# Entry
Amino acid sequence: MKRFLFNATFSIIACHFFAACATKHAPPPRPVDVIRDHLRDKKSVSVLFIGNSLSFGLPKELEKLAREKGVNIHAALQAHSGWNLARHARDAETLQILRGRPWDIVVLQEQSRIPSQRIKRHTHMVPSVMQLAREARVSGAMPVLYQTWGYRDGDERRFNDDFFAMNQRLRQGCQASARIEALPVVPVGDAWESEMAKGRGARLFMPDGLHPSRDGVRLNAHVFYETFFAHQAAPKNRKMRLNAAKPTRAGG
# Structure
C-alpha cells in the first residue's frame, strides 16, 4: 500500500513538473497571432505611430494599402525628426494624443542607433518603452515595437560597419526591449535585410542611406499590413519608381 501511494504521489509530482517545464519552454505566440486576436471582429482599426522621420509617410501608405484590401484603418502620426522615444515619453503633446482617444494599436519607433547600442538601450529605450506601453494599455490599446533597419553603409561611428551588422544589432536590441513588456515586434528590418541580401536593397533608401524612399515606405506598409492582419500581401513584382528627393529633415 505504501509503495502504491509513493508511486501515485511520484507520478502526480512528475506530471506537474513536466507540465510546468512544457509551459515554461513553450514558444511564445507569434506577433501576427497576438495582434490578429486583438483586432478580431473590429470593423475599423485606429493606429497611432510614435517615432521620428523614419515613420514619415507610413501611416498614409498603410491606410492606402488597407483600402485596397477592403480594410478600414485610421492611422495617425506623432513624429518629429531626430526624436527618440525618451523625448516622446516626456512630451506633453505626445502624451495628450496617446491619451486622447481609445487607439487599437500604438506603434513605438525608436531612433535606430539606440537599440543597436546596449548602454543607450538600457538607459534610454527600455524605460521609455515601458512608460509608453503602459500608457497605451490604459486606454485598451496594444503597444507594438517597430523594428526599423540598419543604415545602408552601417553606422559611420563604428569601424568597418555595414548594413547587415547594424541590422543584426538593431534586431537583437528591439527583441530584448520588447521582451520586458511582452510587446509584439513588427519586423520591418527583416524585410529590408531580405531585399539587401537579394541585391535589391538600394532602391529602398533615399540618397542619404538612412531614410526610406517611396519603395521603402511601400515595403514598410506591406510588412505592417501582413503583421496586423496575417494576410499574404507581398508587394507586386513590378518595377517601382525611386523617389530621389532628399528628406527635408534629418532623423532616424
Summary: Residues 30-229 form a domain with the Rossmann fold fold (CATH 3.40.50.1110). Confidence is low (pLDDT under 50) at residues 1-26, 232-250. The longest helix spans residues 2-25.
